[in-house]
Write a structure and sequence with these properties.
61% of the residues lie in helices and 4% in strands. The chain is mainly alpha-helical and 477 residues long. The protein has three domains: 111 residues, Fumarase C, Chain B, domain 1, CATH 1.10.275.10; 230 residues, Fumarase/aspartase (Central domain) (Fumarase C, Chain A, domain 2); 59 residues, Ribonucleotide Reductase Protein R1, domain 1. The radius of gyration is 31 Å and the shape is elongated. The structure holds arginine.
Length: 477
Amino acid sequence: MFALASYERQDGGYQMKLWAGRFQKEIDQKTNDFNSSISFDSRMYREDIEGSIAHATMLGECGIIEKEESRQICAELEKILEEITAGTLEIDRNAEDIHTFVEGELTKRLGAAGKRLHTARSRNDQVALDLRCTLRKECTSMEKQLRELVRTLCVKALEHKGDVMPGYTHLQRAQPITFGHHLMAYAEMFLRDLGRLSDARKRMDVMPLGSCALAGTTYPLDRELTAKLLGFHAVSQNSLDGVADRDFCVEIASALSLAMVHLSRFSEEIVLWCSWEFKFIELDDAFSTGSSIMPQKKNPDIAELVRGKSGRVFGDLMALLTMMKGLPLAYNKDMQEDKEAIFDAVDTLRMCLTAFIPMVDTMKVLPENMRVAAAKGFINATDCADYLVGKGIPFRDAYKITGTLVAMCIESGKTLETLPIEEYQELCPEFDMDIYEAISLENCVQRRTVTGSPAPQNVQAQAERVLELVKEQEEQA
Ligand code: ARG
């Protein structure tokens, strides 16, 4: 005795499986839980329903189903969408996935018409579509946040374009820069992240419906119409690739990983800067935490967490790459693992930016302390050597003379600024009183005017240009 497939709910709350015609037993409960993706793909309910509405409209337009039935299906899907959004229709956690749930709910309400929705479609092309639609929205919203971060950095950089701080290599004081210049380095990184995300979004702009299970279909579909209805600019050109491609997940996870690298490096510097050893900044109370035992403590937990969370996103990227690398064409159930990984990456970046942007915006910058740090460590030694080069001494000799001067200063507890002119001249008669002007930190920074260098007017021009660029991007978004 074979029972006909039915969407009636069994008393356990289970929906009968879509393949109930072929099978004579229901799936084991625990195996159902293992197999199910509803707990993480239900967040795509809107995209799933909108995709179904476009598909049903196209089926009606092409005469594959009756126009009236198509209208009925679309109207009911709209209702289902409204009800889920309003919270009056609960998504059944026992359904295998969001696609099964929506189709089951539609069929429960419409009977035969509902059963026609899946004509010329498979969950394989359906999930490929849903994921693309979900991720393009996520990309758009992450791009918006990144633009906000870049804007915040530009505004801060303009405020501090003339505040001298030590620039570092090997975390050793190296040469004078300004705080504004330092911040704009991060603005450049986040601008590249923006570029990578929008590139990935553009490459993802391909509509896979019509690939069906793997081999396309014999129905005379108008795939271009479906694409147009859903706002895609192209349709996929190979049905196997249409259902088997997850490059877009990998690309996005990779772009997000790099964005997390940048956030993590920035966080590391923030942690350093608010230590007593540096004290270049102080974080606002609203974005710091205290200690349960040490009353004096103010900890940069947010920056540390952002730094810590970067690992999750790299893990998500690695999970996606590993999941895909051995899969034969076309769809394999392994690919269900794509969603948790990419959603985790997206959610992590979003959460990090949500806390990070206001933390940077509200942090108190302490330029006096930066100036004090800049005054120690002989960060104007290169400028001292360059001074001698200006007096006709070859750079290698000038370098050696300056090295000796630094050693003398260390010995006598002086700095290049406080070393008397006689001692300079003893070592090299080319030195004159103008050496003090040449090595003043403000002048050292001021003179670095080559494109990309930290002179305050450069920082100002760069920040203004970036602000303009971000504004243009915003207008086009
Ligand atoms: N839940 C599935 C996924 O996320 C949907 C596609 C299922 N297709 C199939 N042939 N089992 O990948």
